Amino acid sequence: MKTASNRSDSYARIYAVVGEIPRAKVATYGQVAELAGLAGHARQVGYALAATPDDLDIAWQRVVNAKGEISARVDPLMEGLQRSLLEAEGVVFDANGRIDLARYRGQPRLQSLRPKRRAPSKGKEGKR
DNA sequence: GCAATGACGCTCT
DNA sequence: CAGAGCGCCATTG
């Protein structure tokens, strides 16, 4: 049962991290991934959350993508629902339904933790 | 064991 | 900020 154990263990980390997110705050998948030990693998975070059992009181709504918007996996209705919940917590959305990550992200960007950069296809990496 | 998919991120334009 | 392209890894078929 290695598979099941590993899966649950990984998911448990996601839930723990999400549960550590303070109210009126949101975290990006990348941030949660890092805190969860999946540093750099935001996809798996979303995957884990997708399998999140409703038994747990996981506020996956606090977990948003880098754009600051809630990810609707199938039901767009819940998107508006969670939006209301976040607003109730004190999170403000813009007209586009996006959150100002600049103020609501739980922690400052872990830019220092950035391990590496993507392969320079253009070779113009020295601009920024 | 391989192939396809996925609640995304990062960088450049 | 938005759009386009590429990449990483895990889970499922």
Arithmetic mean pLDDT: 76
Beta-strand residue percentage: under 5%
Number of strands: 2
Shape: globular
Low-confidence regions:
1-5, 111-116, 121-128
Main sheet makeup: 2 strands, parallel
Strand order of the largest sheet: 1-2
Q: Helicity level, as a percent range?
A: 40-55%
Q: Which class do the helix and strand fractions yield?
A: mainly alpha
Query: How do the SSEs run, as a string of H and E?
Result: HEHHEHH
Radius of gyration over all CA atoms, rounded: 16 Å
Give an overview of the whole structure.
- With 128 residues, the chain is mainly alpha-helical.
- It contains 5 helices and 2 strands.
- It has helices spanning 2-20, 29-36, 42-50, 76-89, 101-104; strands at 27-28, 63-64.
- A two-stranded parallel sheet has the order 1-2.
- Helix 1 (2-20) packs across helix 2 (29-36) and helix 2 crosses helix 3 (42-50).
- The longest helix is centred in the first third of the chain and has 19 residues, at 2-20.
- Residues 1-5, 111-116 and 121-128 have low confidence and may be disordered.
- It binds a DNA duplex (13 and 13 nucleotides) through residues 3, 6-7, 10, 28-30, 33, 38, 40-52, 60, 63-67, 70-74, 96, 98, 114, 117-122, 124-125, 127-128.
